[in-house]
Q: What sequence folds into this?
């Protein structure tokens, strides 16, 4: 439970965003240290926290003594951080690159050399 709560509420990804249409919970660690009851309890908590009944779960066995959790949220309706990412991506896509400018100049002449 602690690893799952940290994964969702630590603010390392989407600060303050917990409502989602769906979620995936993956618990990692040594197989003998991963509690099935703990995973199910974490999934139920994640359902309550996200407001979604579409929470899937699984495990990823490793040799690590530590238990870790990965939470992926799907269908987030609003996030300032995601909107900022998309805005930067739009700006980057709209700005011409040096290569594009060079390619455009190459076709702005009537020379037939090299054909």
A:
């Amino acid at each position: 439970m602690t690893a799952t709560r940290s994964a969702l509420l630590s603010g390392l990804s989407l600060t303050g965003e917990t409502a989602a249409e769906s979620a995936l919970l993956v618990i990692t660690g040594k197989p003998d240290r991963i509690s099935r009851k703990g995973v199910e309890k974490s999934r139920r908590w994640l359902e309550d926290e996200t407001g979604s009944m579409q929470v899937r779960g699984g495990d990823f066995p490793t040799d690590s003594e530590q238990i870790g959790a990965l939470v992926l949220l799907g269908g987030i309706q609003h996030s300032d951080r995601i909107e900022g990412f998309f805005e930067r991506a739009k700006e980057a896509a709209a700005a011409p690159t040096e290569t594009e400018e060079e390619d455009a100049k190459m076709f702005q002449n009537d020379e037939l050399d090299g054909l």
Remarks:
- The chain is about 40% helix and 20% strand.
